Amino acid sequence: MRNAWVIARREYNHYFSTTVSYSVALTILFVLGAIFFLVLNQAIQNAFNGGSTAGAAVAPDIKVIAVWFTIMSVLTVPALTMRLISDENRMGTLELLLTAPLQDWELIVGKWLGALLFLLTILAVTLVYPIILNIYETPGTNLQWQVLSLIILSIALIAMFWNLVIGERLRGLFILFGIWIVAIIAAILLYKFTVPGIDWGLTLSIYIGLFLVCAAFLAIGVGMSSLFSNQIAAFIVTILAFVFLWWILGFITEFTQGIASGIFGYLDMGSHFNNDFIAGTIDLPDLIYYLSLTALGLFIGTTAVESRRWS
Amino acid sequence: MIRVENLTKDYGSRRAISGLNFEAEQGEVVGFLGPNGAEETTTIRILTGYMPPTDGTAIVAGYDVVNESLEVRRRVGYLPETVPLYTDMTAVDYLQFMADLRHIPHSKDRAYEALKTVGLENRAESYIGSLSKGMRQRVGLAQALIHQPEVLILDEPTIGLDPAQVVEVRNVIKDIGKQRTVLLSTHILSEAQQICDRVLIINKGKIVAEDTPENLQSRLTGSERVSLLVRGEMDELPKVLNKIKGVQRVESMPNGSVEFQFAPGQDVRPEVAKTVIEAGYDLLEMRPVGMSLEEIFLELTREDRPVRRNKSRGEP
Predict the structure, then answer these.
(1) Residue A169: its pLDDT value, please?
(2) How far apart are CA A66 and CA A130, in angstroms?
(3) Are A136 and A40 in contact (CB under 8 A)?
(4) In this model, does residue B306 exceed pLDDT 60?
(5) DSSP A164-185
(6) Portion of chain A with pLDDT greater than 70, in percent
(7) Residue B239 has pLDDT above 80, yes or no
(8) Mutation site for B-interface testing, chosen from A14, A19, A83, A96 by largest number of B Cβ within 10 Å
């Protein structure tokens, strides 16, 4: 595992020296920001008008952001994973790693972990949205605490990015872990001692779902990357696999009946997230689904690297 | 220590290496010499645990390359032919990364030490992408040396270096070879001659000759050949020479000299000098002509040539 961590750290570092990863981060955060603005704007307008066309005015929640994060992941994660193994192969550095004393699975897990840490870095920024929503939905109550938490989170995020960009990657990672740990504890506490505001149990469930979806996407991406020597080929196949798993299987489910529908429904990657995690329920089948998909991706990657030795 | 027995590798239906046998002891620099496509790289990749052989065994640093691959990889320093480097990292970061993978404590200090060994300590903070080809080659070498391996395997280590750097790198390799086992492949014959204690000439996945560079030369010719340059009646000279006992295979060369040879141990040169002068010639020059390693190499790797060797090795 120590070797996997060494690989993961290098990979995480690498993301901060390529333009592809910066543009992925920018795209995701820009789209999410725009969507969040529109959602808030719409909610305020509806409240002002005394209701929307669909009925009474509803308080916005984090669901829209989560859905858009998954959509953006489908479209951008392939760009993060495409070069992980294929580029090592092209540059000849795979030979270096395969003759170093590390197991093939450690290499694959390390690559996956590095990419996961990068995606968690982007996801950490989205933690500002639930806090802002909470401020809007409980006007007056504990305002000073909410603003304070927003300020603390912002400072933590700025400190994290500052350290990451100037090259103190370990310190940046440390802050990243800190942000996530504090956020999870805070969400649990807020859920226990509910005050008027957004549903923190739901928020926690959504973020756990997002984490599992990211883990599965990245594992599939690493697996695909190890099958190709060409990044572009890896990108295209990965994005096709994601679109198939996330959307097309859903369509197939709708047009089939009986057992077939059940099977396709279970294989449909989107339904587990969009039906369960986003509704605040975490079921064992959903957990098993995403974890086994992650394991499958990592297994494909390991097998592909091993088979290179035998060719 | 490297011991290879009956090593065979097939790529699909093509047999790349067939029945390779050789050994390399500690404190020895062994050179792998062969034309392009002689499968030295394949052999090296098997020895470093990159790919398994189809048949046969290879023991490196006391461990089997197939069953104890990780143990072998811990003890081998390897510089592949392509010099794999991460161009987006600084030289010292790259070496630290490699040291971390090998669980070396104080990896950063060790990275600086390794850079010092190859004379790059002043470029430690430079991005590898901005280094010249020779410098990159040396960073690659530093990577192979960073864990002070028992066995060092280098695939064409001096390619792309300028003459001064070549000398430096060769000295580094020679130094390491005093205590450790070094196996290097090269196409440069003079390099093999200079730094290797033993040369293995391989062609098409088979060893065609194995000996010290000096022995290879004398063994192949099997006799000593001398070039003679005189002034006088040239047409008569071969006749004069042929009369001398022990002189064999007299040939007139296009440049006006005459070459002849004699069996080792029966030095006929004083007799030849005397006879030539007594016959009225002016003796201008008499020198031995050894076969260069280049000629040996070409001779040995020629397709139709029967192999002449002391011991029979690696022959099907």
Answers:
(1) 81
(2) 11
(3) yes
(4) no
(5) HHHT-HHHHHHHHHHHHHHHHH
(6) 95
(7) no
(8) A96
- CB neighbourhood size of B34 (10 A): 25
Fold category of B222-288 in CATH: Alpha-Beta Plaits (3.30.70)
Q: Is B148 left (phi over 0), alpha (psi -120 to 50) or beta?
A: left
A310 neighbourhood in chain B, CB within 8 Å: 51-52
d(CA A225, CA A301): 8
Q: Could you tell me where the DSSP H helices lie in chain B?
A: 40-47, 69-75, 91-101, 107-117, 133-145, 163-179, 189-195, 213-221, 237-242, 269-278, 293-301
The answer to whether B142 and B114 have CB atoms below 8 angstroms apart is yes
Helix, coil or strand: residue B84: coil
In the stretch 174-213 of chain B, residues with CB closer than 8 A to chain A read none
> B73 — contact with chain A (CB < 8 Å)?
yes
Q: Which string of b and e fits A15-42 if b means at least 16 CB within 10 Å?
A: bbeeeebeebbeebeebbeebbeebeee
Minimal C-alpha gap between A98 and chain B (Å): 6
- Angle (CA) A254-A257-A258 rounded to 5° is 135
At B201, the amino acid letter reads: I
> How far B101 CA lies from chain A's nearest CA (Å)?
6
- Portions of chain B given CATH number 3.30.70.100: 222-288
CA-CA distance, A119 to A123, in Å (whole number)? 6
Q: Which two tokens stand for residue B228?
A: 């003679």
CATH number of B2-211: 3.40.50.300
Does the beta carbon of B100 lie under 8 angstroms from any beta carbon of chain A? Answer: yes
Helix H or strand E segment including A159: helix A143-166
Which residue of B lies nearest to A309 if distances are taken between CA atoms? B51
Hey, is the C-beta of B14 within 8 angstroms of any chain A C-beta?
Answer: no
Chain CA centroid to CA B26, Å: 17
Six-digit token pair at B246?
A: 């022990």
Which letter, b or e, does each residue of A129-158 get, where b requires 16 or more Cβ atoms within 10 Å of its Cβ?
Answer: bbbebbbbbeeeeeeeebeebbeebeebbe
Domain with CATH 3.40.50.300 in chain B: 2-211
Q: Do A92 and B82 touch (CB under 8 A)?
A: yes
The whole-model pTM stands at 0.84
Determine phi and psi for A225, rounding to 5 degrees: -60, -30
Confidence of residue B117 (pLDDT cuts 50, 70, 90): confident
Q: A-chain residues within 8 Å CB-CB of B84?
A: 91-96
By residue count, chain A amounts to 311
Interface test with A, best of B101, B102, B104, B147 (most A CBs within 10 A): B101
Q: B87 vs chain A: nearest CA distance in angstroms?
A: 10
B51: chain A residues, CB-CB within 8 Å: 309-310
Overall average pLDDT of the A118-127 stretch: 93
